[in-house]
Design brief:
- 31% of the residues lie in helices and 30% in strands.
- The chain is of the alpha+beta class.
- It folds into 2 domains: 4-93 and 232-240; 98-207, Aminopeptidase (3-Layer(aba) Sandwich), CATH 3.40.630.
- A hairpin with a 4-residue loop joins β1 (22-23) and β2.
- It is globular, with a radius of gyration of 19 Å.
- The two termini are 31 Å apart.
- This is N-acetyltransferase domain-containing protein.
C-alpha cells in the first residue's frame, strides 16, 4: 500500500515548523513563503484528500492564491515522464520501521552523535561539494532548527577522520523521523560506510524513519538496506500546469 500521501504530510510538518508562512486551509496543506525563489516545500499545496489530480479551476484558484502572496506555488503530482523537465524535483520516498539496537561499530570505525553544528555543516559542505561559505550559514540554520524540533546529527569516523554523516528530524506532530543530509566524503566513498552509519544511527532512534531522495545512488542504497520504496512523485510549479 502506498504511503505517499502520509509521507508527504509527515514532511510538510517539518517545513511548517520552520516557517511562519503556513496557511490554514480546509482543502490543502499550504505554505506560501515570499520571495518566489523559495521552492519545493517552502511554497507548496498538498491536497488533504490525498488525490494528486487537479481540475483547471483548482489550478487557477491555487495560482491566484500564490499570486496574492507574491510568490510562486508548487503542487505534487504522480510521476510522469512527460513532466520531468517541468518539475522542480523528481523524487521518491523510502520508509523503514524501527530496528533493533545494534552493537557499536569498532576497530577503524567509530560512530558518534554530535551537537557541533558548524563541524557537521562543514562536513555537509565538503560531502555535497557546496561552495565556500555554505557551512557557516547552514550551521546557524541547524542551531535554529534544533530549538524547534528533535534533531539528531550523526557522523562516522574512519581511522579518526570524519568519513560519513547523516541526520534525523522529528516534530511533535510527526510519527516518523525524517532522514536528511546523508553524505560520504569523496575519498571514503564505495566502502559501505554510509550503510554502516545509517543502520547504526537508525537503530538508536527507537523509531520509524523515512527519507526523500532524487539521487539514484541514495535510492539504490536504501533499497539495498530494505527500506521500502514509495511511489515516485514530482513537485511541479502551478504555473507549468495552467
Amino acid at each position: 500500500m502506498s504511503k505517499l500521501f502520509e509521507l508527504l504530510t509527515e514532511e510538510f510538518y517539518l517545513w511548517e515548523t520552520l516557517t511562519a508562512s503556513s496557511i490554514e486551509s480546509d482543502d490543502y496543506n499550504l505554505i506560501a513563503t515570499y520571495p518566489s525563489n523559495d521552492v519545493g516545500f517552502l511554497n507548496i499545496a498538498i491536497k488533504k484528500s490525498s488525490q494528486f489530480k487537479y481540475t483547471s479551476n483548482e489550478l487557477k484558484d491555487l495560482q491566484d492564491f500564490f499570486n496574492s502572496k507574491e510568490t510562486k506555488g508548487n503542487i505534487v503530482i504522480e510521476y510522469l515522464e512527460s513532466r520531468r523537465d517541468d518539475a522542480i524535483e523528481n523524487s521518491e520516498y523510502f520508509f523503514k520501521g524501527a530496528i533493533e539496537a545494534q552493537n557499536v561499530p569498532s576497530g577503524d570505525i567509530e560512530v558518534l552523535e554530535t551537537d557541533d553544528y558548524l563541524m557537521f555543516s562543514e562536513c555537509i559542505q565538503n560531502g555535497f561539494e557546496y561552495p565556500e561559505g555554505f557551512a557557516s550559514g547552514f550551521a546557524k540554520k541547524m542551531e535554529s532548527v534544533s530549538s524547534k524540533m528533535e534533531c539528531r546529527f550523526f557522523l562516522l569516523k574512519y581511522k579518526g577522520e570524519v568519513a560519513s554523516i547523516t541526520s534525523f528530524f522529528k516534530t511533535p506532530k510527526n510519527n516518523y523521523y525524517c532522514m536528511m543530509n546523508t553524505s560520504t566524503m569523496h575519498k571514503f566513498r564505495k566502502r559501505g560506510l554510509s550503510e554502516i552509519l545509517i543502520s547504526y544511527s537508525h537503530s538508536t532512534l527507537n523509531g520509524d524513519v523515512f527519507a526523500r531522495t532524487n539521487n539514484p545512488h541514495m535510492a539504490s542504497l536504501l533499497r539495498k538496506m530494505n527500506y521500502s520504496a514509495g511511489d515516485r512523485f514530482q513537485i511541479v510549479p502551478v504555473d507549468a500546469l495552467t
